[in-house]
Amino acid sequence: MLEGLAEGETDPQVLAALAEPELQATPQQLADALGSGDHGPRTPPSLQLFLERVKLIDRHMAQLHEAIAGACTRIKRRWCGWRGRPDLARTRRNR
């Protein structure tokens, strides 16, 4: 729905049809709510900028998730390699 608004769609019925299926509101309830708002000429450009920012944050979060998963995998490999090998688990102070 937000992307439809950002692209300049103003028909409440069309916007309601773009809703995610998980929403608890009926299409008619959404259309009624969308029909009562002021979606002036400034709405699409500012909303488009907001949506682009959200997509950028989503991409960054995915990249961070991959980096963290990789680090966890490397830590797990090292930890599993150290078990049963006290000579590998020594700290710098013990060396």
Residue windows where pLDDT falls under 50 for at least 5 positions = none
Describe the biggest sheet? Answer: none
Which strand-content bin applies to the residues? under 5%
| Number of distinct helices | 4
Number of domains: 1
Structural class: mainly alpha
Average predicted confidence as pLDDT: 82
- Tally the beta strands: 0
Alpha-carbon distance between the two ends = 62 Å
Helix content: 55-70%
CA radius of gyration is 25 Å
What is the element string, with H for helices and E for strands?
A: HHHH
Shape: elongated
Features:
95 residues; mainly alpha; elongated
Describe the structure.
There is one protein chain. Helices cover 63% and strands 0% of the residues. With 95 residues, the chain is mainly α. The chain has one domain. The termini are far apart. The mean pLDDT is 82.
Task: Give a short synopsis of this structure.
The chain has 95 residues and is mostly helical.
How is the topology of this model organized?
Blueprint: H1 2-6, H2 12-17, H3 27-35, H4 43-82
